[in-house]
Each structure stands twice: as structure tokens, then as C-alpha cells.
Write a structure and sequence with these properties.
By secondary structure, this protein is α+β, with helices and mostly antiparallel strands. The protein folds into 3 domains: 2-159, no CATH class; 220-378, no CATH class; 389-494, no CATH class. The chain contains 13 helices and 26 strands. Strand 13 (314-324) and strand 14 form a beta hairpin. The longest helix has 17 residues, at 43-59. The radius of gyration is 31 Å and the shape is elongated. It comes from Fusarium sporotrichioides. InterPro entries: DUF8212. Residues 204-228 form the DUF8212 domain.
């Protein structure tokens, strides 16, 4: 970090230590004094300037510390004009563009002392004096705004008392010049270091930030976000990660929570404490799941999050909607309808009117106990993986030993193909029968409306009265209350 020596007006490199310094916070305009302006650029200094531009990105990871360790932060609000009216001054203060920018969030929180100045460079007041107005416009608690600590470690411990969702809520609606800076401006707030990849886009940068946050905390409020209904209509399946901090301004999405924001739970979790792990495909984590009560498909679940809304002495637990994504893997899920956040309170569930209207008159909503389960949720929309086919091997494994009883296939329907595997030698020849959907395409998930037969085998089990037919088929899931397309078929067989 470089400091301006107030005696010489020269830039000096600061390596850290006990030096006292003031730091400025303001919204950049069109005509700003830059590092290059402070130095005469000649060929001998060009290399140093190039080195500076490369160091600039890495310095973003240290910016929160620089503000936290400053003696004082001077926040210049150039759009707050002088006024004799306290009411007009307050209106201009809370309406300042300074409160809408991404980088100014950490510049507001990190320093031990912040003094605000108006357009005429006359003081408007310090952070503690103006805390009520600041809370009104930012949602940040008065306790945090009152903090005067300059030590980075103490400041991070204070921030650690707030949930991920609360801190995201503070950033909701803020803007940055570069789209990726929506995420990068929050690195210090979450005590995260990560590479800066300008050009990756805002959504990818923000999801990378969330992945780093998940590695450092078990705070499940990071999944307690939602989208406006109109943004959900064009997309069915979602991951557990939000696209921007604005998704955490859940009361702005729908005015049904009276400004409440998910906080860390006051109670110990009953789960096993299995760590959340990240793969290149998605998240593996443990959540408490219960079947959605009026779902006949058996594929829709409520996942309760270990965080809570607090209203007086009442704690309200949020739950998100998940849909099972695979028949052969009961741990694979996707999120659906992120515009809905169900609420659990006093052993009862509070649902939006839309869901309540799905229920028949007099139908009782009974929730089964939520059971902790290890699940996997992909980062991206899952591929609709249709069945590739069916394989049948005509043998019966012994129940008490590893012996096998061969079954003779007397006849088969045309859909079955016959294969002989001789790789293990003539004495160990293995037969198999296959229905290959690449050769005879199977139904699509959206088109299957009723059970179908794929193929029939007439079997001889070795005795006169042991002839049986094996029928293999598929059937669709029953419709679910949200009318989302199922992600798998139900295979069936009859003898």
C-alpha cells in the first residue's frame, strides 16, 4: 500500500506496522487523481507503473485490512449539498450514491472510526452519530456501526457473529463498475482470499465467492435466498448457489417477512456434522429432508436450513424445495421454485397462499419428521439423462453361497438383443440380453404419460412347471404439485 506523506506530498510504500494513517472513501467520478498523475511518467518509471497495475488486483484481497487498520476513514459524499434544514440534509445523506456502491460497504464497516463529509467538505457526523440513518439505508446493525476496534482480528470476529445471509443482504442492490467486483468487493467482509478473474462475468465470480465461503463455514443461511416469481418462470431447475447478493434481499422479492433476514441458529444442530464438499459438478452436503406432504410423485422434498428468522422471542426456520433427480441415486437433487421459502414455526409449517390453494378443502397438512441426509446438488441444470437401455443376465445367484443357477431363455420379443461373452474362456461363457435405446429409442421424460412395455422374455427355470415370462417396462411419475418435469422414469418388471 502507498501512503501520501502530508509534509512532502510524495507517495511512500507502506509495509505495515505502527504508522498511523487516514484513509479516504468516496465514489469515483469522471475526473480523478490517479497514481499515474502523482508521478511523472518517463521511460525509467514505466516499468514500475506496469508493475503497479499488476499488483493492483492482488491488493484487492488486502483492502479490508487497510481500512480496518487505518486511524480514521474520511467518507466524502459529494452529492450531499450544504443545507440549513436538518430534514433536507438527512434526506440527501440517506439518498447518497455512496450507499449504493459495492466497494463502499467494506469502507463503511472495516474502519474503527468513520467521519462523513458533505459536498463542501464540512463534517456531517461520524458513523456512530449517524447510525440510525445508516441502519435505515443499509440494514447494518447499530452494534456493528458503533464498533471502534481497529484490529483486523477483532473486526473479523465481530463480523463472524452475523450470518452469511445478513452480510449478503447488506450488499444487495449495490453496484460496481466492473460486474465481477460485485463479488470481489465482498472478499474482506467474508475474510476470503481468491484469485481475481476479470472477464469471467458477475455470476461466475459470485458463485466462486460462495464456494470459498462454504469451505470456511457451515452456515446454511447461504442457501436461504430466493428469486422473484418472474425470474423463475423461464427456468425449472436450480443449484443451491445464488446468482447475486440481491437474491438475499428476500423481503424485497415478496413483502411477507417484515424485513426479517436469516440469522445464525441459536440451537445446536442434530445432524452428524458431515462436512460439505465441493466437486467440479456440484455440492455434497447434509440437509434435513422431509417429503412434501401433498406430493404423490415421491420426488419433492422440503429441506430445512439450520438458520432462523427471529421475531421477538419467536424463531422461524426456513426451508427450500428440492426435487429428486435420479431413480437409481436417492441422494441426487436439484432446487426448484426458488421464489418459495417455506417457514417452520412451533412444529407447524407456513406456506405461501399458492401452495395452500393446491390443497383440497379440509385437507390436513402433516409433515413427517425431517431426517438428516447426505445429498448432492449439481452446480448447473442437470442433463435429462434418459435410460440407455436394459440388460438381463439369465442366472440366479444362490442365497447361501456364490453358486449360480443358469436360466434358459426360450423366446424373446424383438426388442431384445442377444450377446455371448467368451472373454473368460469356453467354460465361463456368459449370456446377456439387452434392450438398447440407441437402436430402438425409448420415450422422452415429457412424453411418457402411462406405463409401457419394453420387452418380454420367456424363461425356463429348469423344471417342467417352472416356465415364466419376464416383462420389463417403464412408467412415469405421478404429477407433482409444482408441475415440474420429472428427471427420471420408474422401471418395473413383472413375472
Amino acid at each position: 500500500m502507498r501512503l501520501i506523506n502530508t509534509q512532502t506530498l510524495q507517495l511512500e510504500f507502506y509495509h505495515g506496522g505502527s504508522r498511523r494513517y487516514a484513509i479516504l472513501s468516496h465514489v469515483w467520478g469522471n475526473d480523478e487523481v490517479t497514481f499515474q498523475d502523482m508521478n511523472s511518467v518517463d521511460p525509467a518509471e514505466a516499468l514500475e507503473l506496469d508493475r503497479y497495475s499488476k499488483l493492483r488486483e492482488s491488493s484487492i484481497n488486502s483492502m479490508f485490512r487497510w481500512y480496518a487498520e487505518s486511524t480514521i476513514c474520511l467518507a466524502f459524499l459529494q452529492d450531499v449539498p450544504p443545507s440549513e434544514s436538518e430534514e433536507e440534509k438527512k434526506k440527501a445523506f440517506i439518498g447518497s450514491r455512496w450507499f449504493t456502491r459495492g466497494w463502499t460497504l467494506q469502507e463503511l464497516i472495516a474502519p474503527g472510526r468513520v467521519i462523513f463529509y458533505g459536498q463542501d467538505w464540512k463534517p456531517l457526523g461520524n458513523r456512530s452519530e449517524l447510525k440510525n440513518d445508516i441502519k435505515l439505508v443499509t440494514g447494518i446493525s447499530e452494534e456493528l456501526l458503533d464498533s471502534t476496534h481497529h484490529m483486523m482480528e477483532i473486526k473479523q470476529r465481530q463480523l463472524g457473529q452475523y450470518s452469511v445471509a445478513e452480510k449478503m443482504y447488506w450488499a444487495a442492490g449495490r453496484e460496481t463498475t466492473r460486474p465481477e467486483d460485485i463479488a470481489y468487493s465482498l472478499l474482506g467482509i467474508f475474510d476470503i482470499n481468491m484469485p481475481l478473474l476479470y472477464g469471467e462475468g458477475q455470476i461466475k465470480a459470485f458463485k466462486r465467492l460462495q464456494e470459498e465461503i462454504i469451505k470456511s463455514t457451515d452456515d446454511e443461511s447461504i442457501y436461504a435466498w430466493r428469486q422473484p416469481r418472474y425470474r423463475v418462470e423461464g427456468k425449472t431447475y436450480w443449484s443451491l448457489l445464488a446468482n447475486s447478493p440481491s437474491a438475499f434481499d428476500i423481503d424485497h422479492v415478496a413483502k411477507d417477512l417484515n424485513g426479517l433476514v436469516p440469522k445464525k441458529s441459536k440451537y445446536l444442530s442434530l445432524r452428524s456434522g458431515v462436512s460439505t464438499s465441493m466437486t467440479n459438478r456440484g455440492l455434497e452436503l447434509e440437509l434435513s429432508l422431509t417429503p412434501f406432504p401433498i406430493d404423490k410423485s415421491g420426488s419433492i422434498f422440503l429441506a430445512f436450513l439450520n438458520c432462523e428468522f427471529r421475531q421477538g422471542q419467536t424463531s422461524i426456520s426456513p426451508a427450500i424445495l428440492l426435487q429428486r433427480a435420479a431413480w437409481d441415486k436417492d441422494s441426487h437433487f436439484v432446487r426448484i421454485r426458488p421464489d418459495i421459502l417455506a417457514l417452520s414455526m412451533m412444529n407447524s409449517i407456513v406456506l405461501p397462499d399458492e401452495l395452500l390453494n393446491m390443497m383440497r378443502d379440509g385437507q390436513t397438512l402433516i409433515l413427517k419428521e425431517a431426517i438428516p441426509r447426505q445429498i448432492f446438488v449439481p452446480h448447473n441444470t442437470p442433463d435429462l439423462r434418459y435410460l440407455k437401455g436394459v440388460i438381463f443376465r439369465p442366472e440366479i445367484k444362490g442365497l447361501k453361497d456364490e453358486s449360480k443357477t443358469m436360466v434358459r431363455v426360450r423366446s424373446r420379443s424383438p426388442t431384445w438383443q442377444y450377446f455371448v461373452d467368451t472373454r473368460k474362456g469356453p467354460s465361463q461363457t456368459a449370456e446377456s440380453y439387452e434392450i438398447n435405446f440407441d437402436l430402438a429409442p425409448g420415450p422422452s421424460l415429457g412424453s411418457l404419460q402411462e406405463p409401457i412395455v419394453l420387452g418380454v422374455l420367456e424363461l425356463d427355470l429348469g423344471s417342467a412347471d417352472s416356465k415364466q415370462c419376464l416383462v420389463i417396462g417403464l412408467e412415469p411419475l405421478l404429477p407433482n404439485p409444482f408441475q415440474t418435469t420429472p428427471l427420471y422414469f420408474l422401471p418395473w418388471d413383472r413375472k
